[in-house]
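Action item from last week, closing it out:
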Amino acid sequence: MRIPARLPSGTFFSPKSGMRGYGALGFAVATMLVLALPAEAATTYPLEIDNCGVTVTFEKAPERVVTIKSTATELLLSLGLADNVVGIGFQDAPLPDNLATDLPVLAEKLPSQEVVLEAEPDFIYGGWESNFSADGAGERPTLAQLGVNSYVAPAACRSVAPPKLSFDHLFAEFAEMGLIFDRSEAAADLIAAQKAMLAALNPDTRGLTALWYSSGTKTPYVGAGNNAPAMIMEALGLANIYEDVDEGWTSASWEAIVDADPDVIILVDAAWNSAAQKQKLLAENPITSKLDAVIHQRYLTLPFPAAEAGVRNVPAIVDMAGQLADLSFGE
């Protein structure tokens, strides 16, 4: 079966359907269409998609790719596309063992447009929309004029507000990337494997509340109600104390956190702000040190690349479910 070049989807563009961007109904219908594609489907080019409000046309599968952020790099590697990657930048952590390989590093942080273009890419895949700026990898219209296609991870789109992140949305990105590279079978295998992991998961039933502590010292930056933190906590059976905030992440206050008194605290382990550093701060802060979760060290941890929408979310959920099951609450 050949995939039509203009399949209507939340990110695909169809002149007949008019479904563009991330309208809730359009995205829901499109997600079902993308995930329903047969594993053996081959992509027909030219392929036109609408990604984060930008129409992108692929005359063929990209051959020379620059990835920015770990989530972008790891998805392509999961689809077997290591040979297509000519440069990486702004990686949040080392690659996991199952994806470990040597890739050209363009910059430890966000590479400049000049550095990116020296790699002669035909496609740039960014984990954040802000990666595509004049003082970053380049603005998307400018790159297009130079013959370089670009793509923003849909969950990180800000020009067009995405819906609340779900596993269907996450897997739709996997499928769409498989479509772009004519690797739909590999994408279908990845999705099937992760769905099987989720199906075997038993969410916690103790009615526990949780704080997702991403970063910050004086002002904590925490997981809110509509992106990867919310999706992960819901899968674990945890009630997010900031679930009513319609953002992916939000700035909070220690006083409000103490008032909410979460049963569990999720610590994002980053090289620049490790889980150990967070534990130390919580134990030494006169306000938070009185929290029951801190006193009894009821922590769950996950690596930073698993804290944003990507291939590490589901494995992290499985690992965190094990951590959660080991916590004692004096029952």
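Closing note: The radius of gyration is 20 Å.
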